[in-house]
Specification:
The protein contains twelve helices and nine strands. With 339 residues, the protein is an alpha+beta fold. It folds into two domains: 4-89; 108-336, 2-Layer Sandwich (BirA Bifunctional Protein, domain 2), CATH 3.30.930.10. A hairpin with a 2-residue loop joins β6 and β7 (253-262). It binds 3,4-dihydroxyphenylalanine. 3,4-dihydroxyphenylalanine (DAH) binds at residues 170, 172, 212, 250, 253, 284-286, 307-309.
Length: 339
C-alpha cells in the first residue's frame, strides 16, 4: 500500500516555489481526474473495510490540506500582484513633473460676472438668461423707445439680414421677457452678451457684456434702489469707496440716475480712464417707467419697481486696474495669466 504522507509532502514542496501557472499543474497532478491523490481514492475499493476507513480518512485530510494550501497560495499571489501593480501605477499627484503645464482658469470677464452675480444672489436676487437675438419690440418698443425716437441713435444696432430680428444692444429686453413670464414679486439679474455697431477702442467694443437688474413688487421705492446699489458697490469695491448718484435719463425708467465711483485708477486726481473728471460712471438705474409696465400688462397703480444696468467690462477694468478694454479680448497669455 502506498503511503499518503510522502505524496502530500511532495505536492506541498512543489507549491512552495510555484508561480500561478505551476499551481494549476500541481492541482491537476494530484487532485485532477487522474491525479495521484484521486487515483488513491479510486483504489480504496481494493482494501478491507477497516483499511478503507483509516486510509480513506487520511487521504481526505491530505486532499483538504492540499486544496487549502492551493487556495491560500493563489490568494497570496493575487495579493502580491495587486500590491505590485498599485506600487507601479501609483500617481504622485503632488509632483510637478506629473503635468508640466500650468492650470487654466476662468477668463477675467467670466470671473467678474460671477463675482457680481454672487453679490446679488447674496441679496436675494435670482439669475435669468435673456436672448441675444431680439425683435425691435423687446429691444426698444416695450422699453418705451418708440420708432424714430432719437434715443435709438445712442445704441447703434446690428440688424439681421432678411428678418425682423436684431442683436440686442443691451440686456434690458431681459426685463420684458421676465415680466411677461412671471408675476411680481420679481428680484432678478440678467447677465449676458450685447452687441453694438461701433468701432473698437480703449473703452468700446462691438461685443461686450452687461448685467441687468430688475426688482418689482408693491411699495418698491427709490430708497430701496439706492440702498441696494450702494451695498453692491461697497461689497465689490470695499466700504471706503466714494460713490454718488447723479440724475440722468433713460427711456425705460423715471426718475433715472447714474452711479459714479471715485476713479480707482487715479484716486480722483483725473486720468485718461476717468477723462480727467476723477469719477467713473459704473451703472444706470431708475424706477421702472409706467409705459414699460403697460407693455407687459402690469398694473402700474399696484406695482412699482426699479431697474439697473451695468457694463461688465468696465467693472473688470476698474477692479483690476486695466486701462484698455482691448486687452480683455486679445487673449495675450501674458495678460491672462495675471488675473
Ligand atoms: N440699458 C442701458 C444701457 O445699455 C443701461 C440701463 C440703464 C439699464 C438704466 C437699466 C436702467 O435697467 O434702469 O445703456
Amino acid at each position: 500500500m502506498i503511503k499518503i504522507k510522502p505524496i502530500l509532502d511532495e505536492a506541498l514542496l512543489k507549491l512552495k516555489t510555484a508561480n500561478i501557472d505551476d499551481i494549476e499543474s500541481v492541482r491537476i497532478e494530484y487532485l485532477g481526474k487522474k491525479g495521484k491523490i484521486t487515483e488513491m481514492l479510486k483504489n480504496l475499493s481494493e482494501l478491507s473495510i477497516e483499511e478503507k476507513k483509516q486510509f480513506g480518512a487520511e487521504i481526505n485530510i491530505a486532499k483538504t490540506k492540499l486544496n487549502d494550501t492551493i487556495e491560500n497560495k493563489k490568494k497570496d499571489i493575487a495579493t502580491k500582484l495587486l500590491e505590485e501593480k498599485m506600487k507601479n501605477e501609483k500617481i504622485d499627484i503632488s509632483s510637478s513633473f506629473a503635468f508640466p503645464f500650468s492650470k487654466g482658469h476662468q477668463h477675467i470677464i467670466t470671473k467678474t460676472i460671477r463675482e457680481i452675480s454672487d453679490i446679488f444672489v447674496s441679496l436675494g436676487f435670482d439669475i435669468a438668461e435673456g436672448k441675444e437675438i431680439e425683435t425691435d419690440w423687446y429691444n426698444f418698443e416695450a422699453l418705451n423707445i418708440p420708432k424714430d425716437h432719437p434715443a435709438r441713435d445712442t445704441q447703434d444696432t446690428f440688424y439681421l439680414e432678411g428678418s425682423q430680428n436684431l442683436l440686442r444692444t443691451h440686456t434690458s429686453p431681459g426685463q420684458i421677457h421676465i415680466m411677461e413670464e412671471t408675476q411680481p414679486p420679481i428680484r432678478v439679474i440678467v447677465p449676458g452678451r450685447v452687441y453694438r455697431n461701433e468701432a473698437t477702442d480703449a473703452t468700446h467694443s462691438a461685443i461686450f457684456h452687461q448685467i441687468e437688474g430688475l426688482v418689482v413688487g408693491e411699495n418698491i421705492t427709490f430708497a430701496e434702489l439706492k440702498g441696494t446699489l450702494t451695498l453692491f458697490i461697497h461689497k465689490l469695491f470695499g466700504q471706503e469707496i466714494d460713490l454718488r448718484f447723479r440724475p440722468s435719463h433713460f427711456q425705460f425708467t423715471e426718475p433715472s440716475a447714474e452711479v459714479d465711483i471715485k476713479c480707482v485708477l487715479c484716486g480722483g486726481k483725473g486720468c485718461k480712464v476717468c477723462k480727467g473728471s476723477g469719477w467713473l460712471e459704473v451703472l444706470g438705474c431708475g424706477m421702472v417707467h409706467p409705459n414699460v409696465f403697460k407693455a407687459v400688462k402690469y398694473d402700474s397703480e399696484k406695482y412699482t419697481g426699479y431697474a439697473f444696468g451695468l457694463g461688465v467690462e468696465r467693472f473688470a477694468m476698474f477692479k483690476n486696474g486695466i486701462d484698455d478694454m482691448r486687452v480683455l479680448y486679445e487673449n495675450d497669455i501674458r495678460v491672462l495669466k495675471q488675473f
